[in-house]
Design brief:
With 948 residues, chain A is α/β, with parallel strands linked by helices. Chain A is built from 27 helices and 34 strands. In chain A, the strands form ten sheets. Chain A has a seven-stranded mixed β-sheet with strand order 5-4-25-24-23-6-7, sandwiched between helices. Chain B has a three-stranded mixed β-sheet with strand order 10-1-11. A two-stranded antiparallel sheet of chain B has the order 2-3. The chains are: A alpha/beta (948), B alpha+beta (243).
Amino acid sequence: MASSNQTKIKGKAAARPSPHVSDEIRKTTCYMCACRCGINVHMQDGRVKYIEGNKDHPVNKGVLCAKGSAGIMQHYSPARLRAPMKRVGPRGSGQFEEISWEEAYTLAESWLRPLRENAPEKLAFFTGRDQSQSFTSLWAQAFGTPNYAAHGGFCSVNMAAAGIYTMGGAFWEFGQPDWERTKMFMIFGVAEDHDSNPIKIGIGKLKARGARIVGVNPVRSGYNAVADDWVGITPGTDGLFIMAMIHELLKAGQIDLEYLTRYTNAGFLVNCAESGPSKGLFLRAENGKAQVIDRATGKLADYDATGVKPALTGHHRQAGETYRPAFELLAEQYMSDEYAPEAVAERCGIPADRIKALAADLARVAFEEEIVINQPWTDWKGERHEKMIGRPVSFHAMRGISAHSNGFQTCRALHILQILLGSVEVPGGFRFKPPYPKPPESHPKPHAGYKAGQPLDGPHLGYPMGPEHLLIDEAGQPKRIDKAFSWENPFSAHGLMHMVISNAHAGVPYKIDTLFMYMANMAWNSSMNTSSVIKMLTDTDARGDYVIPHIIYSDAYSSETVAYADLILPDTTYLERHDCISLLDRPICEADAAADAIRWPVVEPDRNVKGFQSALCDLGARLGLPGFVNEDGSQKYADYADYIVSHERRSGVGPLAGFRGEDGTSEGRGAPNPQQLEKYIENGGFWASHLPEEAQFYKPWNQAYQDWAVKIGLFDAPAPYVFNLYLEPMRKMQLAAEGHGERQPPEHLRARMIETMTPLPHWYAPFEQSQVAEDDYPLHALTQRPMHMYHSWGSQNAWLRQITGVNKMFIPGALWDEHGFAEGDWAYVTSPHGRIKVPVARMDGVNGKTIWTWNAIGKKRGAWALSEDAPEATQGFLLNHLINELLPPKGDGLRWANSDPVTGQAAWFDLRVRLEKAPKGAPSEPALPAQDSPVGQGPKNVTYGDDF
Amino acid sequence: MTSLPQTTEKKLGLVIDLDTCVGCQACVVSCKEWNTSNYGAPLSDVDAYGAEPHGTFLNRVHSFEAQPEAGCSQTVHFPKSCLHCEDAPCVTVCPTGASYKREEDGIVLVNEDDCMGCGLCAWSCPYGARELDEIFGVMKKCTLCVDRIYNENIPEEDRVPSCVRTCPSGARHFGDLGDPESDVSKLVAAREGFDLMPELGTKPVNKYLPPRLKDQPSQSALTPQHSDAKGLFAWLDKALEKL
């Protein structure tokens, strides 16, 4: 794109009031992060000229972030792969030879076919930041391997799972604050790509209305910079802080009693025996329904019987056992001195008065500033309500509180706080986005039943309700390579992609043959323990063969991970591909509408690349996978677009909900429509269907919502439910650990399960913290994602890397002075696991015990078509080198996973370190050897736009 | 040197809300994206994939910390582009007449055909709002998207600068600051908008809205009604009766 100057300038220089903008606008979906905004791609001379937000789109309503606008540089990136490649040098060298697709498929088939025929579990298929999980999981299921998941395990599964288990959905894809009405908004931590534009739009609305924003985050960047109040909490203590606010609310009686009796399991009777196999379980009638004490009659009743008003206090004696409402247990737990603000203040780094004031503010806004909407609605029991009562406090949180080993319980506590305030699914509070709410019972159970030559016995991932749903063999050993749904992390709803390489390398629980990955930079910024992972990927056995025999990887760019694969399937850019953002998967709905969207090739690839999902259609057909071939054995789906339009998951329900039926007029349910993609394109790349007014709130209990959801195919029969303040499946796991039931955990896990799997969230110290001496490692170390970057994709972008090309380690002012740092200095940061050398900078708006840096800026030399002296490689660094996937040994002969014990979520933010001054100057350490670039290096200069 | 108009019919400009800007850089990149393929020479990027990438941007966001006398440090995100000053020193200093301020709307522009890239205007601008494009050798600056705001080829609602259209948090506003009845003028009045470095006498048209006072937590606390769970339960039974 470089060009000489002057000639071009002539004729363009003068201010022309109405220049030609573009020949055509093509509307598709962004993929510069996980947000999935609608974009208008302006085309000129058949090329991409300009990208702006789509004003009609439900997610971004016309705005677009820095990543989205930099999409051009991503699309034209010199790091794009050009053709399938076969490794010709040793792993890690980056030496490849370009091959044909035919050769690539033949090679892949030569590895995969014998596995399918003999041992399908020896394929581990993990798909990273995949937005097509309902498709990739179908492929994995057809192949028959139990070893499939995407990247949720190292992202935010604690939030997702805690939300589903507690109330049928969490933040972002499951729900959002009622931005139009909320008056007080608390945001904990951040994960910039999780609802990035909607949060910014929402903050703008709150600011315009003068609503209050409270930021709870160790670092005062981004949203916390504009928050009216910044609470610079100590990492890993959010749960304590939340429980202390609950303590205050309970002591003052500032809770929504009517809401609790109607919509939660607060009245469910819990067995309060001292011990025994029923201790802590609900009292159930023969019909299986949990029992409550009806306040009107004082007698037992099914919790959902019409007219029953559950008591929240009292007790019931039956067969020698005492039963008490769950609410009593909750109140006793959180009203105890253990959770008093004074008791937690020091650990949280927040004065007790501040905690008390915030609890008072929440109560005041929720109860004294309630909102009333004169909209009648009818509940699940047929009772008509004349009004909708709003409690205008709302919350958002994501990875900041998730990525700790106590993250599941912290996320549970945050949901419980919202429920006690009566602010879920009411005006001004948190609102679900269809197809949520969806309680845990309505999700599939996990499956791992594999047999040679057969598809798996069901979907891989799901929500266990007790030990009976774990994926373990008769000896209690995990059936999956990532040990998901095993005793170590029973509710690992998103799998544990971050454990796959180390488990495969160790051959525990078994050896695999082929590791097949998509779109996750597992040899670099997406793995804990990066240097060791690189060794595992390149390690050889006594015969000189790689310990992980085959690695297939699909990526669009020359990432670090490409260098470690044997076979590369080159993906397209997001502007060159078909995709569906499906209701079967992780849709783009808003609280008042169901919506889905597509991507389509606004330009055709100019390289020998193919959308990964289309490659799976081809590969699936070659392998003869059921569902991927017709009866005569021929290929079923010509490509992913064909699948999107013609696949039916249930009769009449397919990947896209809009424009169904032969004439394209059906919504949700209807026969496949061959013209469906054209209809989406005409409609701006998306489809949306709005909820009736009476269905807008109280969705889990609202008849109109339930009926609407059935009508458009979200589910097949109304499924009202109540929220789980008390989570019985957790208690079932504890019972197993106490020695009850057919399936019981191994001895070494029992104490930890009893401590951590409490049915009401308790706070416990993050594991790493409780295992290392505070004097040795006195500091917390974190990363945050820059708002203008999405992991390693962003930092190779010619425009974005000019904004942040180097990540420094930010040091709190007092610590900076104590160490005598000056501008331009470098430091060693040491964890129990390793040491890195990094450039440092001072920051005062940060928790005094915390140092932090920007995520995923650091690059390996030779990757991403950057020059080997690029600052990302010479000064940028990864914190990952300091974080082990296993905790430090604690003398019991075992190495415990550095994960949440409930979900297996990677505990990135538990990291403890110490700091010391280092000799000034690059390179940052570890300085790993360069890899060859299979795509060469980017051009010296870029003069984008010169040609238009 | 070049002269400035005595008055302009309109004073088009931006109002930037420092209370709402989260520093996301959306305006920076959208500006680059629009302007690199429209008005004049592209905004080039030198050493784009190398050791010292540096390119031309018409708008940049600076993030810094400010320590108030009491309380914790504040983080401020400060977007900065040409302020289209009424007394624009960059215009009067221009030796060729390439820099000019328009009578009709007050926008300060560079006629690139007449620009010889001497850099005097950038030197004279106290805000550092002009950048000399290294490859094309001409001075680049914010045009207030003069090729959008009057552009009949785009929908009327989109005839605003690219940075304003894209800003996710709605922190950027565009309008006629010469008209006291315009939305932007009213916003400036309501929020006590200010000039950047007024002491320099450049009379910038763009205004900034100050961050609201932060970290003023309420001193309230809930009055405990129940010292323990038993007390709560007794109250709760009565409260439920009333429902």
